[in-house]
UniProtKB/TrEMBL annotation:
The organism's place on the tree of life at top rank: Bacteria
Keyword Hydrolase among record annotations: yes
Molecular-function annotations in GO: hydrolase activity
InterPro entries, sorted: AB_hydrolase, AB_hydrolase_1, AB_hydrolase_fold
Annotated AB hydrolase-1 domain residues: 23-247
Keywords: Hydrolase
Keyword Hydrolase on entry: yes
Name used for this protein in its record: Alpha/beta fold hydrolase
Pfam families hit by this protein: Abhydrolase_1
UniProt organism field: Streptomyces machairae
Length: 272
């Protein structure tokens, strides 16, 4: 069920499914709540799963002034309060994983557990150069299809390009009635790129699972390993054969691993 929610001084579109312990899904660059459709459907059998549009994605407006990861983390905390969820299992993907890190640091009481997919704690020169190209790409591509075809080379596996999965995602994006503007893409990117939580990650106290795609060229596994090494007790796992966005490419694999982790937390096998 979709609904607008007033949170942290803005209006945010949310999608909610199921009943049970609360789950908050935080999307990455450009993705609206609908990017999590396979999780909204597949993980809501025993959880209350909530996804939302980050500022500048989908139906959520850009702020008038500067936008930051800290601001979006506060948005997420306010959303949980609006849904009357005291503590949630939080899943953050890519740019959303930066938001999830900040949420766990700024609002630790709100985070029951943390899953960080395709994450990083501090950008290196390669990552910075790659995102500078993305900023140029969205403004200079001849049309939206051309931009997506180029951008998705960093996001999905060769398998997904060969079997028609990427073409399906492109068609869905082009048909989406709330397209993201080039300005919104750039401003989200500008908010994500200064993210640097490496020295603060030891302050995260929630049980944490860090997942990396073996074939991810945008946020390669070495980034995730650095994050996991910095968070006390965090687990680090590599998803064989996967790239940057496995929750879309291989949702059954992703959902099963995340669901198992939540069960461990809820059964008291991990401190929470």
């Amino acid at each position: 069920m979709g609904a607008y929610v007033e949170a942290n001084g803005t209006t945010i579109w949310t999608e909610s499914r199921g009943e049970g312990p609360g789950v908050l899904l935080i999307a990455g660059l450009s993705d609206p709540a609908e990017a999590w459709q396979a999780q909204l459907d597949g993980l809501s059998d025993r959880h209350r799963v909530i996804a939302f549009d980050n500022r500048g994605s989908g139906r959520a407006p850009l702020p008038d002034g500067p936008m930051s990861v800290a601001m979006m983390a506060d948005d997420a905390a306010e959303l949980l309060r609006a849904f009357q969820i005291d503590r949630a299992h939080v899943v953050g993907f890519s740019g959303g994983s930066a938001i999830a890190q900040e949420l766990a640091l700024r609002h630790p009481a709100a985070v029951r557990s943390l899953v960080l997919m395709s994450t990083w704690a501090r950008a290196d020169a390669y990552f910075t150069g790659m995102t500078r190209f993305w900023r140029w790409l969205v403004a200079q591509a001849p049309d939206e299809r051309a931009m997506l075809e180029a951008f998705f080379l960093w996001i999905y596996t060769p398998r997904a390009h060969a079997d028609g999965t990427v073409e399906r995602f492109i068609q869905e994006t082009l048909a989406f009635p709330y397209p993201q503007s080039a300005q919104a893409f750039q401003r989200q990117l500008e908010a994500f790129m200064p993210h640097d939580a490496l020295d603060r990650l030891p302050g995260i106290t929630a049980p944490t699972l860090v997942l990396a795609g073996e074939r991810d060229i945008a946020t390669p596994p070495r980034f995730g390993r650095t994050v996991a090494d910095a968070i006390p007790g965090a687990r680090f796992e590599i998803l064989a054969g996967e790239a940057h966005q496995p929750f879309q490419e291989s949702p059954d694999v992703f959902n099963a691993r995340v669901g198992d982790f939540w069960r461990e937390v809820e059964d008291g096998m991990l401190p929470n």
